[in-house]
């Protein structure tokens, strides 16, 4: 007979394998073995075990025919049949108890070994998952490193393009500034000239019966100034010189005062353009410097993230190596445990099978003794049910439980019943150790200043799970940060209040502006000061101006100082407008307005102009 491993002992619940006899009953199994066993085989089994009394061995020799008839009579005289049967029954009982104990030990061993194997398989699965996670971390780190390298190279290329564009823009502005400074230098060299002297800027001569005219911009050498002076002269040409004959027209020489005013205005505009160019050059330099700083900052952050990714890669590779080693050791341990379990199973089969053979041999001999003495009594050995286990005193870590069984067949002249109750160890597998995690740490700094970065926080594993304990949750959390673009436009303040209307009647304009609250960064843009997004106009006082408005006079007492521009250009128009204003303020001679007129004008020479504007010129 053989023992079977039953994978589910308890009805409806999976559990460790248990040892129990084959599906047929003990009586059927014993009957089968005894029918196939000869008396000689039974005697050999009895001698092989070596625990039979000498009297019983003598009886078996007589039964096997190895002793003469006298010895058989002597044996029958020395050993009564009842005594022999009693010894055989005791041997059967002892063998049954030994078999029962061996089966229990084998069953307990198989249960324990099964739980150890299951725990080892789970640990193997955990190690395999750790190795797979480490491999995924390696791939993620390598992907991140490649991406960061690409972004760093792209940012470096954009920095190179920016540097080239900034250099070109700076060279262009410096070239314009050099021309402007050349013009200013020319003006400085001629600032002592007497502008309105006897030397005229226009000559006329008779040539071939006709007058010919020739402009001579005195001492004007700079190309830009030459063009400006000629443009000013052309704007004032068109009248004939007096005394010229018909058909010989010549343009009028411009007045010295007008040329002087044009030149002084040109100098002022040139200085303003110089200052504007300097401001533009400084603004361009500042913008380029900020953009370069921004790109350098991006590159530094990308490099820092790359170093962090390199560290993650090294950590992941170390984790994978350690996990692979643990995985190898755990697989080796599992193989050894399975080999031990198989070896122990074979040993259990051999031991229990030997005991069962002994029991059948003893019964074979007992039946032979009965037949030899013509004993027709039917002997019955005690038969008991399977063990019934009560609840274990512990669920893990080792406990005890009571086992019991009942008598199925009471003994009649056969082997006595084995113990019907007992106590055995149970739940000897280690208790599950659940994972224990520390509290989350603080969030790390963002990995980038702009363009999208990552913040992360971690928590440490205080206790690793063991023996089918609850696994650990996430130990790393990440979230995106500073996702705004590194290149962003300027920020504008709120609209200011509307200005007063430019005219009291006849249609005027009111305006309002928005100032820059935060400048543009990197490749960001910012609208100009006079763009629609920063400057708005609103029509106002669109009503027509009435006669009373223009000449009704002032009805209040006022002290008015009228400042008049005494420049050469537009002087007639200035006088006409001043006269109209005085007339309007007079109010029919009521005397309510006291009026003073102050005439002002620019310097007549460049020396005086330089003295007046020395601070501006120096700046």
UniProtKB/TrEMBL annotation:
SUPFAM superfamilies (alphabetical): TSP-1 type 1 repeat (SSF82895)
SMART domains on file: TSP1
Coiled-coil regions, chain positions: 274-347
Residues in Spondin-like TSP1 domain copies: 435-486
InterPro entries xrefs: SBSPO (IPR039942), TSP1_rpt (IPR000884), TSP1_rpt_sf (IPR036383), TSP1_spondin_dom (IPR044004)
Keywords in alphabetical order: Coiled coil, Disulfide bond, Glycoprotein, Signal
Protein's name according to its UniProt entry: Spondin-like TSP1 domain-containing protein
Organism in which the protein naturally occurs: Alexandrium andersonii
